[in-house]
Amino acid sequence: MSEKRASGVARILIDEAAIQSKVKELAADLDALYGDDVPLLVGVLTGAVAFMTDLMRAMTIPINVDFMAVSSYGAATKSSGVVRILKDLNDEIEGRRIIVVEDIVDSGLTLQYLLDNLQRRNPQDIRVVALLKKEKPGVIEVQVDAVGFTIPDEFVVGYGLDYAEAYRNLPYVAILDPSAIRPE
Ligand code: IMP
Ligand code: MG
């Protein structure tokens, strides 16, 4: 990895071409599902920005876009289970058809919190699209309607995902070299 932005990357798990073709598939499925309805895509900041911007441009039906920011784990690589809304939606969503766009479902805690919160606002329905889902035993069952890639239970970066706010601008999903991870 000679690029400066890739310093510390051990190997690429999902390359750019694979991501882009999967995003097109997911977008085509959404196009077909909503027909004449105008869904509101809700991106979860900051990790979902890369996925969100590619997904929305691959969709050909009219859509609206908004973002929410919830607290994440800072520099740590494990979920604390503590979720706080840092930025809420700009508009009410009563009666709207919502598509939650997530970067990754790990423990599922963040998504579960978000879904409970959005559900209380009485949307018509909520669909969850996640680019990545970790395969791990014993986690909570959370609603995920479409997943781009199921990945092993390893910490990944790139395509929006960070480690200590770095690596979000990699165009692929990668695994870090252990030497790039600071002890907690
Ligand atoms: P969860 O609550 O454990 O499902 O994870 C919530 C958030 O943590 C995700 O939306 C990501 O932003 C972040 N996250 C989880 N796993 C990873 C990872 O492997 N790399 C980078 N961020 C992650
Ligand atoms: Mg996230």
Please report the distance between the alpha carbons of the first and last residues.
26 Å
- What is the chain-wise order of helices and strands? EHEHEEEHEEEE
Q: Outline the biggest β-sheet.
A: 6 strands, mixed
Shape: globular
Query: In terms of structural class, how would the helical and strand content be classed?
Result: alpha/beta
Percent strand: 25-35%
* Helix content percent band: 10-25%
**Ligands in the structure?**
inosinic acid, magnesium ion
Q: Write down the overall mean pLDDT.
A: 92
Figure out the total of helices.
Answer: 3
What's the number of extended β-strand segments? Answer: 9
Strand order of the largest sheet: 4-3-2-5-6-7
Low-pLDDT windows of residues = none
| Overall radius of gyration | 16 Å
Structural overview:
The protein is of the alpha/beta class and 184 residues long. It is 22% helix and 30% strand. Helix 2 (49-58) links the parallel strand 2 (40-45) and strand 3. The protein is globular, with a radius of gyration of 16 Å. It starts with 8 loop residues before the first strand and ends in an 8-residue tail after the last strand. The structure holds inosinic acid (IMP) and magnesium ion. Residues 44, 47-48, 103 line the site of magnesium ion.
